[in-house]
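User: structure tokens for this one?
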Amino acid sequence: MKKALSLVIIFTILSALLFLPGIPISAADAPSPKEEVVYGLLNLDGSVSKLYVVNIFNGGEITDYGNYTNIRNMTTSEKITQKGDQITVNTGADKFYYQGTLEKKELPWDITIKYFLDGEELSGEELAGKSGRLKITISVKQNNRIDDNSINIDSNFNQIESSPNKINSNFFDNYALQIAISLDNKLCSNIETDNATIAEAGGKKQLTYTVLPGKGIDIAVTADVRDFEMDAITINGIRLSLGIAIDNDAFTGQVSQLIIAIRELDDGAAELLEGLEQLSNGMQKYIDGLKAYKDGLGQLADGVDKLDFGASELSRGLSELTKQNDSLVNAALAIQQAAFDSANAQLAGINPGLPVLTPENYSTVLSSMPGLAEVKRQLDNAVQFTQGLKAYTDGVAKLGKGASDLAGGISEFKSSSSAIISSANELYKAGEELNNAVKALRSGLTTYKSGTKELRNGTSAMSSEINNKIDEILGTISGSNNNVISFVSEKNTNVLSVQFVMKTDSIKIPKAPKVEASKPVELNFWQKLLKLFGLYRD
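Assistant:
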């Protein structure tokens, strides 16, 4: 009976513990906030020799994940428990560090280093102590090799299809690299390289190269060397997140105004073309009437009245058209100025050292800057558009004056009916020339309207395109705003930062082994006595 009662009590206690509310079963397994510093020891050819990670935590109960061959407490004497890929420790330290050696030996970057002496490829080890013309090449690109450690296995030991290089791709796309090469000035001279920041430090030249996220690099360094030695090549990788913010709306606001002005200009050109088509049709009718007038002098009075009316209408129409010249020119100049203001505002944020762009100097300033070819093209269009419109308004003004003169002449013709017949042929000829001029104007305006339509269509999405381009450029230099992911394990979901520190072996001339001097033979008392009298022999 007592045994049965005991079993009931045990069962009751276990049930209470199992179903007790408010106790998270897996709380201890939740990953702790951490920082990772990945150290890569590279061979002289850039291949990975060893990878280990220094993991940094705040104190307390720590749960971390990683496939490590061994781990080491770098802070305290507290025991770290490793069970599979789970690492746990309870520490009282404010800042806790532990090191783990990774099973995998793949980095997000594929690094290849080659050495050439007088045109012949040598290994880094063979290069030590050599003299001649040295060339070092370093190639950095994305590592597309499959990491075997990323393959997932289910409970039945079957391989689960995974996405290889997911982590590697994230780091390649979001992390910038800084590559540093140190060359001793006593051993190296005539050093040549491109795209490097060069500094003098302690009798050595420090060559520093920057690799932006998502980009590779090919480096070539040449130098004359003697008894060559070289410190380790270092490569540091950090997540590039500069937090650059640009008010795109302030920049594109002026572009929007330009787009509106172009739209209004295109609408005005459409109206102008429609009016000119009506004028052309009326002019053709006028010429037909003039011919009939010439051929039918019997209806002279009626024909002269129509001619006078048509000429007056033409003169008035061209006069109204001429009145719009200043507005059109001013609008074009405003558009041109807006384009230059927009370009100057854009360039001021990119390169404050550039002079203010004007229609007179922009071509010279921008021609030497291939990266700003698109800005130059836009400014070219604005200037050419303004010049073309000015030429057009000048033509309209001249045509208006000609039409006014024509109307005055017709009026005199009407009052001088006695000379009508004699000058009828000349009048008809002049009318044909005018009609041809109107047709030419119509053709030119049609081409002009096609240009404004093309300009309108080409600039309708300019604001969004500019925004997208700005975002693209800033994305390249600023990096992604996505959450930081762990290099060690995808189970580490609370990672504050990841940093890469990589370096090759140094190239050193092997030192000759030291020859230890033979130790003197210790003599006993009798040997010393015999030696004193010259009687001792070794």
